[in-house]
Amino acid sequence: MKVKFQHFFEQAKRGGGKRFVVAGAAGDEVLRAVYRARKMQLMDPILVGPAPVIRKAALRLRIALKGIEIVDLAEDAEMADRAAQLVASGDADAIMKGNISTPVVMKAVLDPRYGLRTGRLFSHVACMDVPRHPGLFVITDSGMVIRPTLEQKKEILQNAVEFVGALGIRRPRIAVLAANEKVSPHMPETTDAVELVRFAEQGIFGDVILEGPMALDMAFSRESAKIKGITSRVAGRPDILLVPDIASGNIFAKGLVYLAGAKISGLIVGARVPIVLISRAEKAETWVRSIALANIAARRTETR
Questions:
Q1: Domain co-membership, 265 together with 282
Q2: Which of 58, 220, 63, 223 is nearest to 135 (CA)?
Q3: pLDDT at residue 132 in the model
Q4: What is residue 15's predicted lDDT score, i.e. its pLDDT?
Q5: CA–CA separation, 153 vs 176, rounded Å?
Q6: CA distance linking residue 187 with residue 168, whole number of Å
């Protein structure tokens, strides 16, 4: 993707911001994000959390809450359940995880009472904007599936391809990452890569360019591919990076943020609605970027 995050703010505002229910809204960075995203017309928020704490924090931060609905709940499980209920009833278009834990939110989202499952695997997409790289790319799955099987990797890729399609990428370049390009039975990610290439050749992922196994240096460097004597249409310009497991993806994404100054946004995809899900340690800007991308993804789910 040869564009940066700013491009998607304008795209997200078209048609007006979606109605987001914020589970766990009592946090300074969460409230700052909601304020900025609302001002940018990226969201119409419903705040779920302890109302006195939310109002006190908003007063201290000089954030006006006029016109914003607040659902007064104190327990994390109650907040997550109410968020899922509001989406299930059609009163909200997307969920944003605020200052509560991921497992609590996901337990509510996966509860069959709320009908948010689609029969597809839920997976995480981390959209990265790295200063030295010319455009955005997606790391998946760095926040949901711990050790994906081959079948789960197939579904993770299907989710990611649909996500970047919503962003306007029609023929994404996909690198299936491993330690190197050699296939070994001792490295399951390499044998999985061979099968995923075969799936791609069969058209299972649609119109994509998928290669692997591929080491990280080759994924980002055409020169590396040249030195290794490998002809690649993905090297140097990937749109999607499929990581072997959640640990490698999470470490890689956070390493880019903290050591390379990357900007990140994060969503859970595969549900009936997009779910903004990032670390509670992130700043408001990260939530705002994620809200923008969730707006675009929400429009895609409406047309399924």
A1: no
A2: 220
A3: 84
A4: 61
A5: 10
A6: 34
Residue 119 region, left (φ>0) first, then alpha (ψ -120 to 50), else beta?
Answer: left
In this prediction, residue 1 carries a pLDDT of: 58
Asked, for residue 243, whether it belongs to a domain, the answer is yes
| CA 148-150-156 angle, 5° bins | 60
- Residue of 130, 199, 135 whose CA lies nearest to 168: 135
Assess whether 171 and 284 both reside in one domain. Answer: no
Buried b (16+ CB within 10 A) or exposed e, 22-40: bbbbbbebbbbbbbbbbeb
How many Å apart are CA 129 and CA 1, to the nearest integer?
Answer: 10
Residues 6+ apart with CB under 8 A from 42: 9, 12, 13, 17, 288, 291, 292, 295
Tokens 């695997």: give the residue: 121
At 214, list the tokens. Answer: 């591929």
Tell me how far apart the alpha carbons of residues 304 and 294 are, in angstroms, rounded to a whole number: 16
